[in-house]
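Researcher: I'd like a structural prediction for the single chain below. Treat it as a standalone chain; there are no partners to consider.
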Amino acid sequence: MTMRVYLAAAALAATTPVFASAQTADTPPAPAAAPDYGKPESWLCRPGKVDPCDANQDATVIKADGSRSTEKFSATSDPKFDCFYVYPTVSNDPTPNSDMVAGPEEDSVAAFQAGRFAKYCRVFAPLYRQVTIAALRAKLIGKPDTSDRAMAYHDVKAAWEEYLAYDNHGRGVVLIGHSQGAGILKSLVAKAIEGTPAQQQIISVLIPGTTVAVPEGKDVGGDLQSTPLCHTAKDVGCVVSYVTFRADAPPPANSHFGVVSEPGMVAACVDPAALTGGATTNAYLGAKGAGMSSLPMGPWTTDGAPVTTPFVKVPGLLSTACASSGKAHYLALTIHAQPTDKRTGTIVGDIVYGGMTLRDWGLHLIDMPVVMGNLVELSNLQAKAWLAKQPPSPAG
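Model: Treating it as a single chain, here is the predicted structure.
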């Protein structure tokens, strides 16, 4: 399993406007019958099976003086809540929609984005017939879009309904997704969760890498009618959404993220680091960098010593803050590299396509890694708040 497989695929997906439209288009009527999610093989990750979400999450912690230590990871043996994760565009299948067989790219993204949440929760991640890299590449060169976006949505909806019926048992659940997966979850909340009993089970909705429209100055009433933006780590039933750009490279006029065309609406931005009280982010970055469609990652420290864990932590090096520029609202990432710092001041994550850096896509590849630790801790804090609000179980 390699993190680079996922990151390279995600970069290809992000180089076409079809990717953005897939996140915002209305969902058509149901297509052909969804897969049988009563079968374990229809799930990428679920409790009771060895799967990609069990992948090694160990990280090398590198301090400003260059000293290193290894942070070992272990999943909880007593999860108090569940996580329902939908992965982004990664499939390398040659068809417009993917099959239901996990390839190395699906395995890799689950390890990269979902595995760390197992520190606190049970992770459920359905396979689904997503719009593939091939479909997006075809659109990029002017061919007709023959992918079935409704199929992808209705697969995830069917998986969600199966989970609620047979696995949830009244437990709180955090919805997690990125990019295409985030867009599908946004639709799922709007169309199938809001106004239903299931809304009471939602601890929070963590959907970076997609644009969630909200009325300017408000936190609910745009794409989501009764799911507000999160403001504290004790808020429940709320949404965390953002798109990441470098602080010194804000979204350009042609940005594919962070901009809403409807009058009076803006893109939501909720900073996970701010919610968890950090002056800097708790990042877990891929040790090998951000993939083949980004610039290669150089040495992490001035001595050039290799990193042998899958992830790297750089305490104090990165910070985030919600910002606006023109019509765009986004999460601005700042790198605090000091002359005496023995760590690299270069964090890769920009998409490079045809030798050019695509500024209109920002740091889409590392939306989650730059605040991954914050997202994981936030899920646990919100779960505790949700549990505290639940009525006591009947005696006996």
